[in-house]
Amino acid sequence: MKKVVIAALFIFSSIFSYAQSDDSDPEKKVLFGFNLGVNYANLHSKKALPTNMEVSNGSGFRLGLSSSIKFNDVISLWTKGELAFNQSKVLFSDLDNATFYKVMPISLEFAPHLVFTKKNGNQNPFLFIGPSIKLPVEERVPNTSIFPTGKDFAVDFGIGLNKALPYFNFAPELRYSFGLLNINKHPAIQSLNFHSISLIFNFIG
After folding, report:
1. Three-class SS of residue 193?
2. Which residues contact 188 (CB under 8 A, 6 or more apart)?
3. What domains sit in the chain, N to C, each tagged with a CATH number?
4. Quick one: which of 41, 108, 39, 119 has its CA closest to 80?
5. What's the pLDDT score for residue 196?
6. N or C end of the chain, less CB within 10 A?
7. Residues 160-165: contacts with CB under 8 Å, at least 24 apart
């Protein structure tokens, strides 16, 4: 947990340091801000699970910091550091009891997204795509039967709308994150891939 906190502080401080270093630019090519939103987990297994197991997905939420570096009127790089709380698990059921395996319950995510914007006055639609690194933040529990989940590398893509307001930009986005790695560490399961869809509200300026 200590390493995760240090990594988060490094990411967030880097975003703000870079943004503040360019604050004197009258064209404001570098913007920074924060975001918050909701996400729905889409955990699945490439191979069929045993009959006594099933995947359960639910809604969670996320929050983070962001920095937008503008290359020109169309292309920009939007870097985000977010903490996500996910509701995804594998349920184990039999005649005697029912247990579950939490998968990526909390994750620290770092994502540089390449953004393509169509200029349209104060309301500018955009598309984005980019990689995402997800580091699990494990819950410390005394029960040694609780299994962790592994790191993930994903491809993010989605759409959004950047609306210019008097003091900041409001940019809601719809994002799908496609996990590429097997994050499972439970011995009774062969593989698990973690996908998610998120509705995120960005405030930058």
Report:
1. strand
2. 50, 53, 92
3. 2-204 (2.40.160.20)
4. 108
5. 96
6. N
7. 160/125, 160/126, 160/128, 160/202, 161/123, 161/124, 161/125, 161/126, 162/117, 162/123, 162/124, 162/125, 162/126, 163/122, 163/123, 163/124, 164/122, 164/123, 164/124
Look up residue 178 and give its two tokens: 């496609």
| Tens-place pLDDT, residues 88-107 | 999 888 655 668 899 999 99
Q: How many residues does the chain have?
A: 205
What are the counts of helices (DSSP H) followed by strands (DSSP E) for the chain? 1, 9
Per-residue pLDDT at 27: 57
Pairing mode, strands 75-93 and 106-117 = antiparallel
Tokens of 171: 């940019």
3-state secondary structure (DSSP) of residue 118: coil
